[in-house]
Amino acid sequence: MHLVDLWLTRSLSMCLLLQSFVLMILCFHSASMCPKGCLCSHSGGLNVSCSNANLKEIPRDLPPETVLLYLDSNQITSIPNEIFKDLHQLRVLNLSKNGIEFIDEHAFKGVAETLQTLDLSDNRIKSVHKNAFNNLKARARIANNPWHCDCTLQQVLRSMASNHETANNVICKTSVLDEHAGRPFLNAANDADLCNLPKKTTDYAMLVTMFGWFTMVISYVVYYVRQNQEDARRHLEYLKSLPSRQKKPDEADDISTVV
Length: 259
Ligand SMILES: *[C@@H]1O[C@H](CO)[C@@H](O)[C@H](O)[C@H]1NC(C)=O
Ligand SMILES: *[C@@H]1O[C@H](CO)[C@@H](O)[C@H](O)[C@H]1NC(C)=O
Hints:
Elements: H1 2-31, E1 39-42, E2 46-49, E3 66-70, E4 92-94, E5 102-103, E6 117-119, E7 127-128, E8 139-141, E9 147-149, H2 151-159, H3 163-168, E10 172-175, H4 185-191, H5 198-241, H6 249-258
Parallel strand pairs: 2-3, 3-4, 4-6, 5-7, 6-8, 9-10
Antiparallel strand pairs: 1-2
Keywords: Leucine-rich repeat, Membrane, Repeat, Signal, Transmembrane, Transmembrane helix
Protein name: Leucine-rich repeat-containing protein 3
InterPro entries: Leu-rich_rpt, Leu-rich_rpt_typical-subtyp, LRR_dom_sf, LRR_TM_domain-containing, LRRNT
């Protein structure tokens, strides 16, 4: 009887231990489950492939150990801030062929330093936040987007590590200077510093100065004419008053000598 009792309590505790073990495994497994519509494989790190999966947004349940992430050829329109921040091992991110329009400041927060390849080509990006690519070490592909070339884009491209290669393929769909539309960014940025457009600003300064001078001259002329009119009127009045004083010709002589 005693032995059976002992055995029972032992097996019970074993059972509990086993159960918690199974639960732990289940929990761990669910944490690294493959997102819906994606294929996960191990080829030099976790490869999460969600290409062509009709995704409207970036899955929020990406496994934290993801190394390669293919989200290309979907209908993703935005990159929420900090969405990749837990993917500390992410090296390749492909967002090509989507409908992304804008890259916000913290889109790549947490992965900017580890990312080696970033593909944003074939989207609808016109502009990015001026700090969006800060600290980004990756080779970035940003071609085939309807870029608006302005000071911000110039600053962003100049701050990127691999900027020359990246900037090479940027075509200005629109620009602060109309004549840049349709031209490669590098070409446009070569003949004008987009953050310091000298022609326009000097034109503006010239205009302001000229306007100032013009106003001064006009007000002086107006003042002068008025003053003269006043003087002339006074003089006329004085002359008119002269005949009544003609009794004193010596005084009239005095005035004529003064005048
Ligand atoms: C990642 O997985 C996809 C789909 O299984 C495959 O086509 C691709 O070649 C893999 N990438 C690498 C670098 O192994
Ligand atoms: C990203 O995906 C596009 C479309 O499938 C492909 O053409 C491109 O080569 C990929 N880029 C990288 C860096 O793998």
